[in-house]
Structures are given as structure tokens and as C-alpha cells.
Amino acid sequence: MLPHPHPPPAPHNRIGLALGGGSARGWAHIGVIRALHHAGIEPDIVCGTSIGALVGAAYVDGDLDRLETWARGLRLQTVVSFLDFSLGGGLIKGDRLIEFFRSHFVDLDIGELPRPFGAVATDLQRGREVWLREGRVTDAVRASIALPGLFTPVQRNGAWLVDGGLVNPVPVSLCRAMGADLVIAVDLNSDLLGRHLKPKAAPASPRARSDYTPIDAVLARIQSGISQLGFNNGDQAATPPAMLDVLSSSINIMQVLITRSRLAGEPADVMVTPLLADLGLMEFHRASVAIEAGKQAAEAAMPQLLARLNGENSR
């Protein structure tokens, strides 16, 4: 590992890192972690919801470099290859994605990880929050990322589990429960309200590209049906939002409002809020954009974080 460009802070109380949910926007967590490392800050406890659980698990196990290389190399065709479509419980079963994660990154028991790790899921029947702190890492991640309507639920101990973002999008409370004295929270959804309800300019025809392939034709048709809105200001007969626009906007509203409510009652010590409104729910192939946004947001929050750390150390 490269030496820190800046000397690490003096010894401190236990730092917790709460990585929030946000689907493809979650690659921003990689940039946040990079910025923290650059400043000499290594969290003692890592908790994640949804994509935050996936990135957090790879980080805790020492696989962040490989995960970043893989994420930056993703192409739209690769993302599509992971979509094992289902007719029950969600559009995507998620088996291909999690098997890839299991074989290339973490496949340990949570208790075997080098530092404490926890993931958040939601009990679909009881509507309660479930903290996943034991069992296989990949099983916990799979349950935590089961976004309703997209990924099929996961059965665990007789309960059907779905995405933890339904109840705790930024798991500050889990970090505190696991012993964190100072919590850094990453909220991926702070600027998302209305993002999918803004008219978009028509994209250039993919046929003009030299690398146009048959799969592009299929994806273009899907994209035109699920991502482009036909709003016409003042026109009562305007085309209604497409299915995934409605789903994405609904998820955004839910997670933003739940996050605000949870953080009001369980505030983090330092908030990191990457600006990711232009990144779509399933645009996992745009990792470079998300990672850079995460890095910039963490750097912007660094003076506050260092002040809090130095304030604690002086007590």
C-alpha cells in the first residue's frame, strides 16, 4: 500500500463509515474511500445499505483496488449480461451479478473479515429493519441490494428480505450500534428529487457510431421506452412517464425523505454528499463519473472531518 500523502491524525476514537444506497451511484463510495485514505483516515467500522454494502464489503476485505478496476472497465453490454430477467418478485434475479461478486471478490463469513462490517436489509413481511452481521458476506450483500421491483427478494431465516434503503438508506444507526464514536455518512441521494421528471434532449443515433452492434439496437429500443419522457409544457395530452422513470422517481422520493427523517433523529458527525443527479439508476457503466464525484465530495467535507477528529483528540 502506498504511504499516505499526509500524516494520519493522532489516535482517535473508533470511526464508523456508513455507506448509503443508491444503485449505480454507489460507485461514488470508491472515490470517498480513496479521499479518506489520502488524508490518512481508515475507518474502524464499515456499514452499508444496498450498493453501499457491496462496496463496503469489498473495501473491508482489501478488494477495493480490484473492484475499482472492474467497475471502471464496465461497458453497457457487460451490465446487460448480468441481467438474468425474472417474471416473479422483480425484473432481475441478481444471481449472475452476485455469483460474479462471490467468485471475484468477497466469499467469506462476515466474522472472518479484517474489521467489523454490517449490512442493512428490510424484512418485507414485517416491514422492519434487519442488520446482517453474520453469515456469508455475499449473502448479506445480495439481500441488501434487493431493490424492490428490480431485484428479486432473498429468503433468509424464513423471512423475505429486500433492499435496506426502504428503512435505513444511510446506516448511521448500525455504525453507532457496532461501537463507532464518530460516524462519516455518505448520502448518494441528496440531489435526486425530480431528476427523472426533467425532459431530456434526444440522444444522437447510435448508428452513427463505428462500434454500433446488434445489442446496441436492442438497448436503444429499451432506452427509448423506459428513459425518455415526452413531457410538453402546458400540454395536457403529454406522454406520461415510462415505467422505469416512474419507478426510479418513486424510489428517489422514498429514499430522500426516509434519509432526511432518519438522519434528523440519528445524525452523522460528518456528511459526504456527492452530486449524482445526472447518473441513472442502472448506469453502472459510468463508474468513472461516480467515483470522481465521490472523491470531490469527500475532499469538500475533509476540513470538517479533520476538525472533528482533532476536536475529539484534544479532549
Task: Describe it.
Helix content is 39%, strand content 14%. It is built from 10 helices and 10 strands. Helix 1 (28-38) packs across helix 10 (287-313), helix 2 runs antiparallel to helix 6 and helix 5 (95-104) runs antiparallel to helix 6.
Largest sheet: 8 strands, mixed
Q: Looking at the structure, what is the overall shape?
A: globular
What is the residue-averaged pLDDT? 80
Strand and helix order: EHEHHHEHEEHEEEHEHHEH
Keywords:
single chain; 315 residues; alpha/beta; eight-stranded mixed beta sheet; two-stranded parallel sheet; 10 helices; globular
Give a short overview:
The chain has 315 residues and is α/β, with parallel strands linked by helices. Helix content is 39%, strand content 14%. The longest helix is centred in the last third of the chain and has 27 residues, at 287-313.
